[in-house]
Design a protein that fits this description.
Strand content: 15-25%
Number of strands: 7
Structural class: alpha+beta
Helix content: 40-55%
Number of helices: 7
Oligomer: single chain
Shape: rod-shaped
Largest sheet: 5 strands, antiparallel
CATH topology of the largest domain: Beta-Lactamase
Strand order of the largest sheet: 2-1-5-4-3
Length: 277
């Protein structure tokens, strides 16, 4: 069985450790790492309780080496030490991928048990226990169940890292879209909404009760078809007045109709120009 490298927390410098200890834990990865280490320590104590071992330790793969991550009891290596894979008991456990038991002759008789932690058919670590009596089959079964709990703790830590990575990508995308300035476009002005230039001539509006000359289009009073000039050009002359005849009296409106019409047209044109301004 080959070893599978597990994800570990990145190493930090002493200055970074001082900063991190002063600041509160806020990221999911940091919290998951603390919970993972606490879980390993609880599993070590659980292994000692179930097997009555005097000492127990959990080792996991880190950068190609087995390193003790959690220890408890007597006669066990300290946390952070590298596992000696040359020992027959450890080598047999890793190679076969199954628990291995042996007797250690060193002064007083001691017995050791090594149980592999397997994930995806690969050895990613092991339990190592010591006591003064032989380990029985029920002890081996207990260690197999605890090894599965270690796998569950690893999965929880990995899930927290994935969630934090997704959150980071989402926040980065939100920040990227937020800093892009929106292009300003001037509002479209339709022809009807466009302001009229002062240089544009005002349209001439002819009063409804004023007629046009049929020849030149000049406004004429009601009842006339030609203006005075066009009438003279065409040779239309008024019939000679009878000698000593008294001219007919015409109303003031008829006498001044042309003047009134011209005044109305001029006033209307001025009013339209002022309104358009």
């Amino acid at each position: 069985m080959e070893l599978l490298t597990t994800t570990t927390a990145p190493s930090t410098t002493p200055d970074e450790c001082e900063i991190s200890s002063a600041e509160p834990i806020s990221t999911l990865t940091e919290r998951a790492e603390l919970e993972f280490q606490a879980t390993l320590r609880l599993l070590v104590e659980r292994a000692r309780f179930l097997t009555a071992a005097s000492g127990a330790a959990i080792a996991l793969e880190e950068q190609g080496k087995l390193v003790y991550c959690a220890v408890g009891g007597d006669s066990v290596p300290c946390a952070g030490a590298t596992v000696d894979t040359s020992k027959e008991l450890i080598a047999q456990c890793i190679k076969r991928g199954k628990p291995a038991r042996s007797r250690i002759e060193a002064g007083n008789a001691r017995f050791a048990l090594a149980a592999p932690i397997i994930k995806d058919e690969k050895v990613i670590g092991l339990f190592e226990l010591y006591r003064q009596s032989t380990f029985e089959d029920r002890d081996v079964e207990s260690m197999v169940r605890l090894a599965e709990m270690v796998n569950t703790a690893i999965d929880h830590r990995k899930a927290a890292e994935q969630v934090e990575r997704k959150l980071f990508l989402q926040l980065a995308e939100i920040a990227r879209t937020a800093i892009v300035p929106s292009l300003w476009h001037a509002p479209d002005v339709t022809q009807s909404e466009a302001p009229q230039k002062e240089s544009d001539p005002a349209p001439i509006v002819v009063a409804a009760d004023v007629q046009k000359c049929a020849s030149c289009g000049f406004p004429v009073s009601k009842g006339r078809s030609l203006c005075v000039e066009c009438d003279q050009k065409m040779g239309h002359s008024a019939p000679p007045a009878e000698l000593f005849s008294t001219p007919k009296e015409e109303s003031w409106i008829n006498a001044h109709g042309y003047t009134i019409a011209s005044a109305l047209i001029t006033a209307l044109a001025v009013a339209i120009i002022l309104w358009l301004r």
